[in-house]
Write the structure tokens for this entry.
Amino acid sequence: MKKSGIYLLIAFFLSIAFSTKAQDPLFSQFYNNAVYYNPGAVGLNPGLRASFTVRDQWPQLPGELRNYNFTMDMAERNIPGSGGLGLVVMKENAGTGYMKTSSVGLSTAVRVQLQENMVSQVGVMTSFVQKSLNWDNLVFTDQLHPVYGNIYETNFQVPDNGSVFYPDFSVGGVFRFTESSNAFSAIQGTFGLAVHHLFRPNESFIGLTSPLPRKLVITGDIVLELDGDGDKLYFQRSQSNKNTFKFNPGFIYESQADFRTYAMGVNLLKSSIYTGVWFRNRTTEFVKSNDLIFMIGLNAPLSPNTRMKLNYTYDFILTEIRTATGCSHEISVIIELDDFNMFNRGRRSGGGFGFSTQSKRSREELECTPF
């Protein structure tokens, strides 16, 4: 068999293996896809936040493994107990037209004030998913000759239905707190837990029973801010202070069927430049990490309450598979509008996080956009 044919088969089987074990797309910049990972994060920050992410997985393989993800959520504080509304649109290509997945999800969250510096949210998401499979591009074992490769016709009876469509449901919760200390002008912690595919929808193409495994996601991060002004006890949402330095360690754990992975690392913000280093693993042994992830980005304020963020991550694969697959790339573009208010446009929504010694702010507004 020709070398290109071998690589094509490798690409297909890797894509099928990845889809079977992991099921859901994985993003290195999970902190920029909070609504995708946890519907409880909808409206956690004030205003409107939109994020578009493209991930190119294993680019050296001839088969395309690429994910496109768009999320948008808006907060609503004028309705008591409301967190906000969210939208998640995703498209995934596995192989060169072999399998495609498209989904649209709508989510909403309720907000519960625990204390003046603590808040929690619980959200649900309803998604509509379509998966399609191009049977003409598949190669079955009875088509292969040990020397000449793909030369035979298959005896496999191709089903009439090349796609499946089903609803899907997810639920999640988020807890956030803020504090100040002598060492830091502000400290914020956010922790979340979500369960996806609650009712395990059937995604079989050939009329069998193939339930989608549930997925558990646990996330957490802490933002430590050093403000050069020294007298402000809240996060600078415009982040225009060049003396501000933010240190943001975090983690994510994902478990679905036999596939388990976690990532740990830290992001830094100085002036308008983001940097970060993360590692991803499928075991608890640090020395056996699968990926080392590097992040660089730009935070560009467009106005005191509006900003655009550009982030790029490079996943350096530490295992031998790197020589055949190459390393993965991920790019995200985020737009944040702090003062956007859906129902009462004339009322300025609280833009700060926590409280200020210079002006009285609503202590129910435990929100910011740290990274």
